Amino acid sequence: MSSASLQSLQLLLAQCRAGTVTPPTRVHRVALTAVPKPTQPPPPPPPPPASEAVAAAPTPTAARFVDIGANLLDSMFAGSYRGKQAHEADLDAVLARAAACGVQHAIVTAGTLEESRLALELVRRQRAGGCPVRLHSTVGVHPTRCLDFLPEAERAEIEAAMAAAADGGGGGEETLAAIEAEVLARPSVMAAIEAHAQALRRLLSQGREEGLVAAIGECGLDYDRLHFCPRLVQRAGFAAQLGLATEGGPPLFLHNRAARGEFAAMCKERRGAVGAAGGVVHSFDGDAAELEQLLSLGLEIGINGCSLKTEANLAVAARVPLGRLHLETDAPWCGVRRTHAGASHLRPLRHAATGAVCGWAEEKKERWRRGATVKDRGEPCHIQHVLQVVSGARGGGEEGEAEVAAAAFANSVRVFGLAS
């Protein structure tokens, strides 16, 4: 861990002891037993032989896209939903549809050190197999997975305190925060955080040498889901990853949920490194004030379906400067739903080369058949829907889509160092 990161962590601990860091007042319910580690998805299957590849159906627009965030390691693309196998793996068909819709690059997001290794393996395999979309990977730890930075004994200690706080016993959130601060101050824990950060650094370096890594992340703060990882542990993990940002290195792929004051403050503390590396706050769903705060730090903004649910969301999305805008799907999550405020702007997907309407059937997962999409499962091809809603929110409608798409593509190529 860099000296600046160490100083940030020590300052945080001092603030906890002095009572200047206020724990959340809301109690987040979790199971009474220790919070289990999130299960890793199974490694994606190898690409099928070319003879088995699914032909892309005729489909939409001359726009080019970079999907800056796609969870292609998710088990849904292996046909598994909540541990139950519903259909065969169809990732290659998913990527064929993405290419048909104009997706030239997609960044595979990772949430743990092990997922980062799997993401790099997926990118290598798909590139070797002639994937029609140029894939890249992130390397980092999601805020909800930052317990991975801790040794097993201390992790179990924190998980027990989380369960007690959720049950309303053991002193509640204040006691949890005190236990976190004490645990994080232990030299053995600080050494473990440093070791985990160094493992990430080595993987980043390896991936960069191979031309596979596009960003550090997904890292940040998520105070909506404290039942997975408590606040101070998240901050320690985020500080360690901010320490990986350097001039000339990969940019930051950032996650910010319900933590705007602390998230922005931590980025501001490391403004030199953050500014030198650059960064995109993905899946942005904040208000106009938060948008301006993040833009003032030199950060850029990623928009997906979760950014476009309400009329208020649409108004904020329309305020993102074209020079700082990025588009993403966060597939298989964060799709644009028919119940969302921007649904009136949705039109059928179209083939990038011909403009013909896509003819892909949509089926429930239990009735899936080859060549069909899965109902309610997002795919990178759905980035066209994000574009349609963003352009509509800006008042440009269909006519304005070319300008928005071109700007977002250029921004993503610039920030993530991709070939145009």
What can you see in these coordinates?
With 420 residues, the protein is of the alpha/beta class. It has a domain at 65-71 and 93-340 and 372-396 and 406-416: Metal-dependent hydrolases (TIM Barrel, Alpha-Beta Barrel), CATH 3.20.20.140. Helix content is 39%, strand content 12%. It contains 13 helices and twelve strands. It has helices at 3-18, 91-100, 113-128, 152-166, 172-184, 187-209, 231-242, 260-269, 271-277, 288-296, 311-317, 383-393, 401-416; strands at 65-70, 80-81, 84-85, 103-108, 134-139, 213-222, 252-257, 279-281, 300-303, 325-327, 362-363, 373-374. The chain has an eight-stranded parallel beta sheet. Helix 10 links the parallel strand 8 and strand 9. Helix 1 packs antiparallel against helix 7 (231-242), helix 3 packs parallel to helix 6 (187-209) and helix 6 (187-209) crosses helix 7 (231-242). The protein starts with a helix and ends with a helix.
Which key phrases capture this entry?
13 helices; signal; 420 residues; alpha/beta; metal ion binding; Metal_Hydrolase; TatD-type_Hydrolase
